[in-house]
Every structure is written in structure tokens, then in C-alpha cells.
Amino acid sequence: MPYTYDDQNIFAKILRGEIPNQTVAETDHTLAFADIAPAAPVHVLVIPKGRYVTYDDFHTNASDAEIVDFHRLAARICADKGIAPDGGDGFRAITNAGNHGVQEVPHFHLHLIGGRPLGRMLAKAEG
Asked: CB neighbours of 89 closer than 8 A, spacing ≥ 6?
């Protein structure tokens, strides 16, 4: 079943310039901006400019140029923000998909979070 993209989601509106953002970096295929409710001192959202709903949708349907651009920009942001392990103390990269993944915005996005100890991502399963 194909993914249905909602042109009225907040990231689509940001990409169209209808909602302002604090841009961190931008390329032909990718936009990165500060999260409006940061979970840590560094919290950047990286989004493709194309109409992709989830991680798997993006990696199945995006062009090679879009995929490479997205990941290279994310890596550059980690280095620029001082959270990459070779110059900082590390980071977490999170993407949520669907209901069980608690995806809030139906536009593929990657959270880059760092600048403090983040603790466990999930509690260990019992049993």
C-alpha cells in the first residue's frame, strides 16, 4: 500500500515558507532546523524536501542523490554542533514511524539530539 502524504503537515508548511523556522543548514534536497521544544542542548530536525512519510518510504522511493544528501548533511550537522564522537561526547539519531513508533508529523524526519547524557532510549524488556 503506498504512503499517503499530507500536504498540510507542519513540515510541508515549513518547506513552503508558511511557517518560520530556525534553519541550521539547507541543501537542494534537505532542510535542517532547530526543534521548537528541544529535548537536549542540541536538538536538530533534518527533513528531506521531498514528499516522504517515513524512514522506509524515503529509503525506498527517494533518489540516490536525495538519500546521500540527507545523510551527509546530518553528519555535517553533528560535526558542526560538536556532538559527533570524534569531537564531542556523542548523540542520538531518532526517527519515528507510524502509530507504534509514535510518529507525530507525517513527514519523514530525523532528530539529532546531544549535548548532555541521554540515558537509555527504551527500558529493557522483561522476561
From this structure: 83, 114
What's the rounded Cα separation, in Å, for the pair 79 and 63?
25
43 labelled catalytic:
no
pLDDT-derived band at 87 (thresholds 50, 70, 90) equals confident
CATH code assigned at 60? 3.30.428.10
Q: Which of 29, 43, 107, 109 is catalytic?
A: 109
Q: How many independent structural domains does the chain possess?
A: 1
- pTM of this structure: 0.93
d(CA 43, CA 106): 19
Residue 116 domain flag = no
